[in-house]
Design goal:
single chain; mainly alpha; Butyryl-CoA Dehydrogenase, subunit A, domain 3; 2 domains; 6 helices; about 0% strand; globular
C-alpha cells in the first residue's frame, strides 16, 4: 500500500490514460486488474451485469474495511449520532445551470467538429493516426483531433464536478473546493483546445465563441462560489 498516493483518485479527472501517476493510484490499478481478470475469463468487462456485480463486490469490501477501521479505534457504528444538514438542490443553482448550458453547447459543437475531422479520414475511436492532407498539414489535424478529445472528455465531467461541489454541506467546504478545482482545470484545458480550433478554422467562430463565453462565465462563477479552490492541494498532483 505504501506505493500508492492516498486519496489521489478523489480529485482527479479520471483520464487515466493521460495520467503519469496512474501507477500510484489504487483505483486505477484495481480497474486495470479488473479489466484483465474479466478478459482472462472471456467476459466483457463493460457488460452491465458484470459492472453491477463488480460495484456490489466493491461496496461490500468498502463496508468491511470501514467496520474493521472502526473496531480498531473502538468506535461503535451503531451508536453514532445522526448528523443533520440542510438539503442542497444544485439543479436550481445558476452555476450548475450554466454548466449544463456549456455541456449542451459542447455536445452540439463536437458533433459538427467530428464530421469535419472524419472527412479527412481520421478515426476518432482509435489513436490519432493521420495521413497528410493536400490542403492542411497532417500535424495540424493531429492537434485538432487531440483538441476534440479534450473537449469531449471534459464537457460532461465539468457539470458533474460542479454538481458535486454544490451538493456538499457547509461542513465539507474542503471537499467542495477539491471538486470545484477539478472542474476549473477541465475548463482551462477545454478553453485552450477551443482557442486552437478557432485559429485553425475561423468558419467555426459562431460555434466556438458561445462556448468560450460560457466557459469563461463558469470559471468566474467557480472563483466566486468556491474561492478556496485555487489553494486546494490535490494529493499527488499539487505541491
Amino acid at each position: 500500500m505504501n506505493e500508492f498516493i492516498p486519496g489521489i483518485y478523489n480529485y482527479c479527472d479520471r483520464w487515466c490514460e493521460r495520467c503519469s501517476l496512474s501507477h500510484q493510484c489504487l483505483l486505477a490499478v484495481r480497474e486495470k486488474k479488473r479489466l484483465a481478470e474479466h478478459r482472462w475469463k472471456g467476459e466483457d468487462p463493460y457488460d452491465w451485469k458484470i459492472i453491477m456485480q463488480d460495484v456490489g463486490d466493491s461496496l461490500k469490501e468498502a463496508m468491511e474495511l470501514i467496520k474493521k477501521a472502526a473496531e480498531d479505534r473502538g468506535i461503535d457504528l451503531e451508536t453514532l449520532p445522526e448528523i443533520k444538514s440542510e438539503p442542497r438542490d444544485p439543479d436550481q443553482h445558476s452555476l450548475f445551470r450554466t454548466a449544463e448550458k456549456y455541456r449542451k453547447l459542447a455536445h452540439r459543437f463536437l458533433r459538427k467538429l467530428k464530421d469535419i475531422i472524419q472527412e479527412e479520414g481520421i478515426d476518432l475511436t482509435k489513436r490519432v493516426e493521420i495521413m497528410p492532407s493536400p490542403e492542411k498539414e497532417a500535424e495540424n489535424f493531429q492537434e485538432i483531433a487531440l483538441c476534440y478529445q479534450v473537449i469531449l472528455w471534459y464537457h460532461t465531467l465539468i457539470p458533474a464536478k460542479i454538481y458535486r461541489a454544490l451538493s456538499m454541506p457547509d461542513t465539507c467546504d474542503f471537499d467542495s473546493d477539491g471538486s470545484a478545482k477539478v472542474a476549473y482545470l477541465g475548463l482551462t484545458e477545454s478553453i485552450k483546445a477551443l482557442q486552437k480550433i478557432y485559429h485553425w478554422d475561423k468558419n467555426l467562430e459562431d460555434n466556438i465563441l458561445p462556448l468560450l463565453i460560457t466557459a469563461g462565465q463558469l470559471r468566474k462563477g467557480i472563483d466566486k462560489k468556491f474561492p478556496g479552490h485555487c489553494h486546494f492541494k490535490r494529493p499527488g498532483f499539487d505541491k
